[in-house]
Automatic annotation (TrEMBL):
Region: Disordered, residue numbers: 61-100
Organism: Peteryoungia aggregata LMG 23059
InterPro entries tied to this protein: Selenoprotein_Rdx-typ, Thioredoxin-like_sf
Alphabetic keyword roster: Redox-active center
NCBIfam families in alphabetical order: CXXU_selWTH
Domain of life from the UniProt record: Bacteria
Keyword match Transmembrane: no
Protein name listed in UniProt: Selenoprotein W-related protein
């Protein structure tokens, strides 16, 4: 079975290459053995889209901005391996709003 492909389409006019590269790096670091490819695709017109295979998992205009690394990793994990523990990323979200 082929490993999943992530594509990040970013706006070159908006200078979002560094943001896209950073998100690609975060995904490759966390899912190094689980992803087949992370591609950066230049675009224009304010586009910022992240796809897992062909499924749109993040769209800047639709989703109200850019994802944080935590949110993006959780979305990818939920799609490719829902049982996977993301360590501190998951533990932090489980404790959100709790009195410590």
């Amino acid at each position: 079975m082929a490993k999943p492909r992530i594509s990040i389409t970013y706006c070159t006019q908006c200078n979002w290459l560094l943001r896209s590269g950073w998100m690609a790096q975060e995904l490759l670091h966390t899912f190094a053995d689980d992803l087949g490819e992370v591609a950066l695709i230049p675009g224009t017109g304010g586009i910022f889209e992240i796809r897992l295979n062909e499924e749109l998992i993040w769209e800047r205009k639709r989703d109200g901005g850019f994802p944080g690394p935590k949110e993006l990793k959780q979305k990818v994990r939920d799609a490719i391996d829902p049982e996977r523990d993301l360590g501190h990323v998951d533990r932090a979200s489980r404790n959100d709003g709790l009195d410590n």
